[in-house]
C-alpha cells in the first residue's frame, strides 16, 4: 500500500509483484513470464469481447468466431505491445487493460440479455450491470488510473455496437440508468481534466518544462504516431524513453501539430 507510482498508489499492481518475490533480484525473467501470461489472458478476454460484440451485431456464428479469433490474434502478436509486456513495471498497464476488458466483456454479455428480461426484473438486472461496471472500474483504477475510463468505454459501446440491441420492456428505465451510471462518470472525468488543466498550469512548467496547453498540442502528434504504429506494425519496439520528442509550442510549431489535430478531428467526424 506504499506505492507512489500514481495518485491512487496502484496497490493491486504493486501486490502482484509478490507473486515472484522469491526471484528478486537474481531471476527477473520470472517477472517477465508473469507479464506474458497476463498479456495472454488479455488476448483471450479481447477475443471473448469481440465475439460478444459480433453477436450483438447479429453476424453469423462462423463469421463472428473468425472475427474474434482475428482480433485476439492481432492483439497478442502486435509488436507495439513488446515493450508493454517485457518491461516489468508496465504490468500496471497490462492489469488495468485486463480488468477493463473483463468489465466490458461482462457488461456486453449482461446487456444483451436485457432483451429477454421481464419488466419486473429490469431493476435487478440494471443494478447488476451497475455493480459489474463499478467493481471492474475500481479494480482497473487501482492498477492504473486510466482504468477510470471503463464507464466511458461502455458508453461508446452503447452508442455504436449496442445501439440496436433491445433494452427490454422498459426503455425509460434504461435511459435513466445509462444517464446516471455511464454519463455521470464521463462528465466527472472531463471535469477532473479541466480542473487539472486550470490548477496545474504553472506547476507543470516548473516540473515538466512545458505548459498544459503545449502538452495537449504535443499529444495530438503522439496520438497520430500511435495510430500509425498500430496500423503499420514495426518489429522494433519504441521503448519507454521519449526524451527526444520536441514540444509543440503552437499549431505550426512544428507543422505536424496542425496536421495531427486535423487528422484526429476528421477521424471523430468519420466515426460519428
Task: Walk me through the structure.
The protein is mainly alpha-helical. It has a domain at 1-153 and 162-173. Helices cover 67% and strands 0% of the residues. The protein contains eleven helices and no strands. It has helices spanning 11-16, 29-56, 61-77, 82-86, 91-112, 122-141, 150-159, 171-199, 201-208, 212-231, 256-271. The mean pLDDT is 90.
Write the layout of secondary structure elements.
Elements: H1 11-16, H2 29-56, H3 61-77, H4 82-86, H5 91-112, H6 122-141, H7 150-159, H8 171-199, H9 201-208, H10 212-231, H11 256-271
Helix pairs in contact: 2-3, 2-5, 5-6, 5-7, 6-8, 7-8, 10-11
Number of helices: 11
Strand tally is: 0
Overall 3D form = globular
Helices and strands, in order, run as: HHHHHHHHHHH
Beta-strand content: under 5%
Unreliable segments (pLDDT under 50, ≥5 consecutive)?
A: none
CA-CA gap between termini: 42 Å
Rg, please?
Answer: 21 Å
Query: Helical residue percent?
Result: 55-70%
Mean pLDDT: 90
| Main sheet specs | none
**Category from helices, strands and their pairing:** mainly alpha
